Sequence to fold (278 residues):
Amino acid sequence: MPIWLNGVLANNAVAEFNLNDKGLLLGYGVFDTALVIADKVAYREAHLEKLTKSCAALSLPVASSFLSEMMEKAAKDLPLGVIRITVTGGVGPRGMAFSPEAKPNVIVSASPIAATIFCPEIRLVLTPLRRNESSFTARIKTLNYLDAIMAVTEARQKSFDDALFLNTAGHVACSSTANLFMIRDGCLITPPVSDGILAGIMRANILRFAKSRDIPVEERSIGYEELLEADDIFLTNSLRLISQVTHLGEVALPRRSAALMALLESMVFDEINYSRSQ
Fold:
């Protein structure tokens, strides 16, 4: 797995790194992961825009042109894979405050993946941890992922695949790494950003696809009990794409929207120019 630190390829993933980096000590930094198909980053411009805005939100002075260059370099010679770009807070004076003198570190990795990552069926279980809808970290992919790590670890110990988060108001938010949609009577319903979710790229694509096909959509708060009455539930992110939820806790979902699910999946694969027979 090739890894670059500030544009320089690391030898066997080993590079000199200042241990006073605020990304390491305080989790001050952001990241983005993107799918690569045939040396091309899927939804490249959307990923670049999101990462650039995240850096700006944390006052991390990284040129968008450099991030773009690294995306291209990491995707080269990767038939099917994933790239991750991490931007740390860099080294600055001791303390919590960000220093304008700090120089961020940019770490880029590229890894091959198998096509089995796409559209898996998911068994989801509710976590007692809550998504803080007022938190800065709810809206940006920062390096602070402890809640997600603990929740998904507990879920897998219980033989589930992922964890479902509610927010502090008791509304459905998201899974550990994905946005959530429910289908009810042919309508797509997804929590609003104000309920503490990350506005994911694949989520935006699904909303765009629905609009293009006149599929009804509602962005509104969802209660857990309402979720149990859904015709279907699915998760979206940039790597799994669309993942149908088969179970919510011990409740098996009815999965009554096969045609709509198939349509959304086919629209995604058509747009990223990938055949599932590959």
In short: The chain has a mean pLDDT of 94.
